[in-house]
């Protein structure tokens, strides 16, 4: 937790810590589309200009950028388990995992824990990747994404894509 500016380890142990995870294929495609369209920060826009040509497809991105790691990959594409595991291949440093796909159903539990009303609007909603991009249906792309994010599939109990 020190990387997040929390310097009182004993106090942090008592905090309720949760994380939101997302299906790795959906997350990778959504992040690709998000960054390619300008992202959130000037750094996202610079990185996209340098690494994602306007004509690049998601499939090309997976094979040319994610696999080859030709460029430092933006945090949007970092494996999710790296954000929640306390130790390499060790226990998670969080108390609860919420699946992005089930976020709204998790709100009552969070309200109970925090004893307050929680409003989590989905401001960037879009259609699932598989409905938007033919590359997401490509067997090689799905297999490659699974291999890159295999630990995320396992740790967060996502079903492997049909490959």
Count structural domains: 1
Strand content: under 5%
N-end to C-end Cα span? 37 Å
State the share of residues found in helices, binned by percent.
Answer: 40-55%
Most strands sheet: 2 strands, parallel
Helix-strand pattern: HEHHHHEHHHH
What is the total tally of β strands?
2
Structure characterization notes:
- The chain has 163 residues and is mostly helical.
- It has one domain (2-155).
- The chain is built from nine helices and two strands; from the N terminus they run αβααααβαααα.
- It has helices at residues 9-14, 24-36, 42-51, 58-66, 81-84, 103-114, 129-132, 139-148, 150-155; strands at residues 18-21, 96-99.
- α4 crosses α8.
- The chain starts with 8 loop residues before the first helix and ends in an 8-residue tail after the last helix.
- The model has no long low-confidence stretch (mean pLDDT 83).
């Amino acid at each position: 937790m020190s990387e997040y500016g929390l310097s009182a380890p004993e106090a942090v142990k008592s905090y309720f810590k949760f994380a939101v995870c997302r299906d790795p294929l959906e997350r990778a495609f959504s992040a690709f589309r998000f960054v390619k369209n300008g992202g959130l920060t000037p750094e996202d826009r610079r990185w996209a200009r340098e690494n994602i040509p306007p004509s690049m497809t998601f499939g090309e991105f997976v094979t040319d950028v994610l696999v080859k790691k030709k460029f430092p990959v933006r945090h949007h594409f970092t494996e999710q388990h790296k954000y929640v595991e306390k130790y390499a291949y060790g226990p998670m440093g969080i108390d609860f995992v919420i699946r992005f796909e089930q976020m709204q159903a998790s709100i009552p539990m969070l309200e109970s824990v925090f004893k307050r009303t929680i409003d989590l609007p989905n401001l960037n909603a879009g259609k699932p990747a598989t409905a938007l991009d033919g590359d997401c249906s490509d067997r090689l792309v799905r297999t490659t994404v699974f291999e890159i994010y295999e630990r995320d599939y396992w740790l967060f109990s996502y079903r492997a894509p049909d490959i």
